[in-house]
Amino acid sequence: MLVRECMSRDIKxxxxxxxxxxxxxxxxxxxxxxxxxxDDDRLHGIITDRDIAVRAVAxxxxxxxxxxxxxxxxxxxxxxxxxxxxxxxNMAAIQVRRMPVVDRDKRLVGVISLADAVRxxxxxxxxxxxxxxxxxxxxxxxx
Length: 143
What we know:
Blueprint: H1 20-30, E1 34-39, E2 42-48, H2 49-56, E3 78-79, H3 84-94, E4 98-102, E5 108-113, H4 114-119, H5 123-132
Parallel strand pairs: 3-4
Antiparallel strand pairs: 1-2, 4-5
Helix pairs in contact: 3-5
């Protein structure tokens, strides 16, 4: 199964200059914990509710702090025409639960989550889930 067959297409993107308070409000309104960051449909990074908590609130940053100051700028993404099992394996290796999906022109077209893969009963999703829930990894907030 291809990523485009199970990814979420209804995504909201925030701009790098958006205040983190506005990003948090958008997350709350959309009931999401992850927002791609960029201009138009070009990715610059991602911000999660955890980024806001650990990189902003824990360091007493103001709610007007730009997203660019607390976002993860190393963007891990996948292509919409990749196999879900391949992407799930990659998600396990880098310990992420969600990943932006781009087309071959590297324009944002969606987001895939482990939940998307599990709903499609991907065998690799189970492996990915095991890898993601291990403590630590590349994107640990302790650094």
